[in-house]
Amino acid sequence: MTQKKTVGMYESFVRSGQPTRATHYCAGCGHGIIHKLITEAMVELGLQDRTIIVNPIGCGVFGYYYCDCGNVGAAHGRAPAVGTAINRGRREAVVISYQGDGDLGAIGFNNTFQAASRGEHMAVFFVNNATYGMTGGQMAPTTLVGMKTTTSPFGRDPLTAGYPLHVCEVLNQLKAPVLIERVSVADTKRIMQARRAVRKALEIQRDGKGYAFVEFISPCPTNMGLDSIRAAIFCMEEMEREFPLGCMRDNSATAVPRAPVAPAPGVEAFFAQSERQHQAPVAEADEAFKEQRLKFTGFGGQGILSLGICVAEAARLEKRFTTWFPSYGPEQRGGSAACSVVVSGKPIGSPAVDRPDVLVCMNQPSYERFAPDVRPGGLVIVDASVPLTMPAPAGVRVVSMPAIDLSLRLGVPQAANTMMLAALAWLEVTGLRSEHLLAALDASFKKKPALVEKNRLLFSEATAWLERHVPAEVRG
Amino acid sequence: MSVHESHTVQPELPRPVFDADECKGCGRCVAACPKQCLRLSGRLNSRGVKPAEYAGEGCTGCAICFYNCPEPYAITIAKP
Questions:
Q1: At what angle do helices A109-118 and A79-89 cross, to 10 degrees?
Q2: In a shared domain, residues A237 and A293
Q3: Which of A56, A184, A447, B18 is the most exposed place for a label (fewest CB within 10 A)?
Q4: Which among A33, A221, A229 has the least Cβ separation from residue B31?
Q5: What is the pLDDT of residue A336?
Q6: Higher pLDDT, A9 or A277
């Protein structure tokens, strides 16, 4: 005596209350048919102990009560991301993402699209019943034009709700997927085709060949407002007109199984590597060191951020505590740019500098915006091109220096920030030694050694200009 | 004849075995059976629906009813 019976599901389902042997699906629902096809293929291919199903939000949410294999519940639409994590971490796993049209086609479509584009090793089983089942029959991305749902009571109007989303066709634009097929569970012939597609998708997983996507046209008698038989007929007659069945792609014969992955380096190895690269000096506490709070401002492209990095690097070389904190707009060039640097003899609480001791301004808007914030006794260094349209706060010194003009005259228009660095050194306002500022300047051109000498020359030209034009009592 | 009397079916022939209480009465198996040897019972099961049952003869053991059935445990096909 042999039997044909359901395999790969629990003998009874323990949800709440008494165990049951029935699903929570409505009479005539396609989900149960699809579950049976999946678990049958899983068992017959010998994959039960390797399979992890990522369950969706939607009617399919309770898959973990039924399928006797590994199960994970994902946040709405995020099954592909969870599946990605699983198969990156457990390469032996056969990952199945089981999702409906609301989960996959609406809230989670980008997750779906990106996972498909990356060719993640997973079988995605997409149940398209043209409606949001669990929440009570609202319009889905896959709802047919003219189809009435609770949120399209006069029928889906493409003028306001757009057209049904053809997920397979969209994914078929991508390079990576190995299998893309649309099947149906509306009648026996279609169920048998679906059975073959499920098996193919799982074989692709078994062989580590990549991403397999199977869409099922599935009846939802309750929300279609039809009995089981008519709902199945609706699938065949109405839904298939919009969503034609067929295999859009099957590269399983030529797809290359994934190679074994070299073990990832451990944390120690990673940091050992970065230690070698940086040889970071460790900051030393020095209560006597007066904390300096600096702000560098201008527009993007003037080297504002790298000037700040240079000062922070000098502080690091001098074993001071330091932070560098950039702030800039969305523009890559031309927007306003600023960064804050703190140099201290003790651990720094906040890298934000609201009241700077030293402010460097490379353009007029930044002078007008930040000069009023400088602490009494502080210093503002402005480029000479900035008109001093308003006086600095009482007790704040202002040094105007033609950094942009000098760098232009010396033929290196990008180096106005080097001039400003020279000014910081000559004015002795950072608390850092000039040799360290120069060493940091050299280090900033580590990848362009030809510029090291040039910037050193600019640095000394700027120093000479300061000697000639700025009274020494401004220093310190 | 009801499911509860299925032992009266000749045991050496293939046949569908229904668990009447797991059936939701959707009728997909009845519509799908190529031999038209299934029907909905005249009696209600514990769910309050009329479950599918085997008419008693004609089954070839093709399992088409099994694959059309959305429930895991409502139909099993016995094949001698």
A1: 30
A2: no
A3: A447
A4: A229
A5: 83
A6: A9
Give the per-residue pLDDT at A35.
98
How many separate domains does chain B show? Answer: 1
- Domain containing B28 equals 3-78
Alpha helices in A391-472, H assignment, sequence order: 403-409, 416-427, 434-444, 450-469
What pLDDT was estimated at residue B2? 45
Same domain, A208 and A292: no
DSSP A4-22: E---SB-SSB-SSSS-BSS
What's the mean pLDDT when you consider all of chain A?
93
What CATH number should be reported for the domain holding residue A356? 3.40.920.10
Of A277, A265, A216, residue with least CA distance to A245: A216
Instruction: Report if residue A2 sits inside a domain.
Output: no
The pLDDT of residue A334 is 66
Number of domains in chain A: 2
Q: How far is B1 from chain A (nearest CA, A)?
A: 22
The span from the CA of B64 to the CA of B48, in Å, is: 25
Portion 177-236 of A in contact with B at CB < 8 A: 187-188, 191-192, 195, 221, 227-229, 232
A202-219 pLDDT, tens digit each: 999 999 999 999 999 999
> Domain residues for A469?
283-474
Q: Which residues contact A237 (CB under 8 A, 6 or more apart)?
A: none
Nearest CB partner across the interface for A3, out of B25, B71, B79? B79
Asked, for residue A21, whether it belongs to a domain, the answer is no
In this structure, the answer to whether residues A245 and A287 fall within a common structural domain is no
Over residues A248-259, the mean pLDDT reads 94
Is A6 contained in some domain? Answer: no
Distance from CA of B30 to the nearest CA of A (A): 10
In contact, B15 and B78? CB cutoff 8 Å:
yes
Say yes or no for a CB contact (<8 Å) between B77 and A3: yes
Q: What is the pTM of this model?
A: 0.70
Percent of chain A at pLDDT exceeding 70:
97
Asked whether residue A126 is domain-assigned, the answer is yes
Residue at token pair 């001791």: A357
Residue A306 and residue A179 share a domain = no
Residue B3 has pLDDT above 50, yes or no: no
Q: Does B72 contact A36 at a Cβ distance shorter than 8 Å?
A: yes
